[in-house]
Amino acid sequence: MICYQGLIESFFEKKLINNKLTFVNYFRSILGILLFTALFSLLIPIVSIIVVISFGKLTDWVLEKIAPPLARFILWILGINYRIKYHQTKLEDGTILMGNVHTPAIYIVNHASTLDILTILALAIQRVRFVAKWEMQYFPFFFLLGRLTGQIFIKRRDREKAIQTLQKNYGKVQQHHRSILIAPEGTRKHEMPIGPFKKGAFRMALDLSYPIVPIYFKGTTELNEGGSLFTKAGSITAHVFSPISTDRWKEATLEKNIEDIRNKYLQWSQDL
Questions:
Q1: Which domain holds residue 225?
Q2: I need a surface site. Which of 169, 181, 209, 254 has the fewest CB within 10 A?
């Protein structure tokens, strides 16, 4: 019995040292997981009733007024101080562009942590729909709420089908003046600090003539490694940059446009 106890204590001690997580971190993480599961379970019937009764008209209210405070609450439980910082850009003609736009846009974010679902929801972007991987639907919570609120699920490994799925949603996006949020890296399993960008988000921006609003999450990878469900306490800042116009973009220069934006992310990962 003493032998087993020693092995168990040694195991947890090594895990705590290797991951630099304290007992409080583990406790908060487990509490956060339980709260997340409980809240989602509670939300499914409530959101279903709200969406059905309103014929879908209150979907934006759910995403803008209910989801963000719940996400911030769970982040607080995890011991994470979350804030949003809007950056401005001054153009040559003196015009100042702010990151908090109020017109339809394609929002892009860096993706390297399981915390991203919370940091994204906490942004409270108006009239937005999220693009998520098809596999997210294997979780009942995400399938039901995702379908009810009109999120877009794509098959990442089938590039042509993924683009077709996005294009099928163009009509709804334009008709309802919606924005789209997508992680151009496509996965959190990529080279650090920023993985290669896929074309989907930028193809949408080009086709819809929407500006691109880059958002860089600082602190997520430092607090939570990849797919781990356990996280450290600390600070995360969502840096929202001014919109990038796509009016002069062309098919022939799309690759360069994508690389230019990815280079911005690489620079932010060093400077911020």
A1: 2-271
A2: 209
The number of residues making up the chain comes to 272
Which CATH number do you get for residue 79?
Answer: 3.40.1130
* Cα gap 81→236, rounded to integer Å: 6
Cα 60 from Cα 56, distance rounded (Å): 9
Q: What is the DSSP string of 35-65?
A: HHHHHHHHHHHHHHHHHHHTTTTTHHHIIII
Give the closest residue to 261 by CA, choosing from 250, 245, 247.
Answer: 245
The bridge status of strand 234-240 relative to strand 212-218 is: antiparallel
Q: How many domains does the chain have?
A: 1
Exposure pattern of 48-65 as b/e (b: 16+ CB <10 Å)?
A: eebbeeeeeebbbebbee
Structure tokens of 98? 């702010």
pLDDT tens over the chain, length 272 residues: 333 343 334 334 334 334 578 889 999 999 999 998 888 888 888 888 888 888 778 888 988 999 999 999 999 999 999 999 998 765 555 555 555 667 899 999 998 888 999 999 999 999 999 998 887 777 777 777 787 788 888 887 777 788 888 888 898 889 989 999 999 988 776 677 888 999 889 999 999 999 999 999 999 988 987 678 899 999 999 999 999 999 999 999 999 999 999 999 999 999 98
